[in-house]
Amino acid sequence: MSEVKKFLYVNRKAPYGTIYAQESLEVVLIGAAFDQDVSLAFLDDGVFQLTKGQDTKEIGLKNFSATYRALGDYEVTKLYVEKESLEERGLSLDDLQNIEYEDEDDDYAEKPSIRLVSRAEMAEVMADQDVVLSF
Amino acid sequence: MAYDVNGATIEHDEEGYITNLSEWSKELADVIATAEAVDMGEEHWAVVNFLRDYYEEYQIAPAVRVLIKSIKKSMGPEVGNNKYMYELFPYGPAKQACKIAGLPKPTGCV
Predict the structure, then answer these.
(1) Mean local confidence (pLDDT), A20-35
(2) Within a domain: B108
(3) I want to staple A5 with a disulfide (CB 3.0 to 4.6 A). Which of A50, A80, A82, A130 is the partner?
(4) Would strands A109-112 and A100-103 be described as parallel, antiparallel, or unpaired?
């Protein structure tokens, strides 16, 4: 067995307009097959990726926001969201989707995947990783 | 390249996945299954319906490991295990069942 590494995918861009958000999510889903310790971070405009009620009809792009709710199935259960980034954009936790995972070790209890952290805490999360991938 | 369903032409890519997801129908599923040499029984349909529901909810076709885990939870370990799923869909439950379900190739499948 090779050792498990800690991977953090950092998302800083709004969901549409560039391909970064969707590509990041795709890489996360593919990478989840390799049994590593995967976390996601959302800061700057990246916090918009998790907002609820997205509607892409008028821009002719696929609304992939529902896919974040599937992350739990892929055992990706740590979505760190930076509090300051939310506040600077007039957003709060209530504006984000409810994303949950089932804890197999706790009788499949549904638990929230989103973890609200301060800028200082986010720095600690980043410092704690083996690999940081920025999107 | 296209499937023929009662005279209607449904386009597909070089691997047999339909190009316009909204053109799917049960009749088309039967046509694709026949082309894949899969004899659709009740359990095949259960997997196909599960995949379509999953796509509807999450906008992705699940990876095979996620599929099998979910089927195990909803239909029990007799169906939701690797061996049985490969008996139902010999060329890979996610890959082949997604094709029949009219979904894109699962993310992460090469």
Answers:
(1) 90
(2) no
(3) A130
(4) antiparallel
Contact of B44 with B88, CB cutoff 8 Å: yes
**In chain B, what residues touch A63 (CB-CB under 8 Å)?**
59
Q: Cβ atoms within 10 A of the Cβ of B110, count?
A: 5
Give just the sign of the alpha carbon dihedral A130, B64, B79, B26: positive
- What domain count does chain B have? 1
CA distance B50 to chain A (A): 14
Q: Read off the pLDDT of residues A79-113 as tens digits, 9 standing for 90 and up.
A: 999 999 999 999 999 999 999 999 988 988 999 99
Q: Which of A30, A62, A69 sits opposite B107 (nearest CB)?
A: A30
Task: State pTM to two decimals.
Answer: 0.88
Would residue A1 count as lying in a domain? no
**Is residue B109 one of the residues assigned to a domain?**
no
The ipTM is 0.84
Domain tally, chain A: 1
Question: Is B106 within a domain?
Answer: no
Chain B residues with CB inside 8 Å of A69's CB?
57-58
Supply the CATH number for residue A47's domain: 3.40.1260.10
Tell me the C-alpha distance between A65 and A69, whole Å: 8
Q: How far apart are CA A33 and CA A75, in angstroms?
A: 9
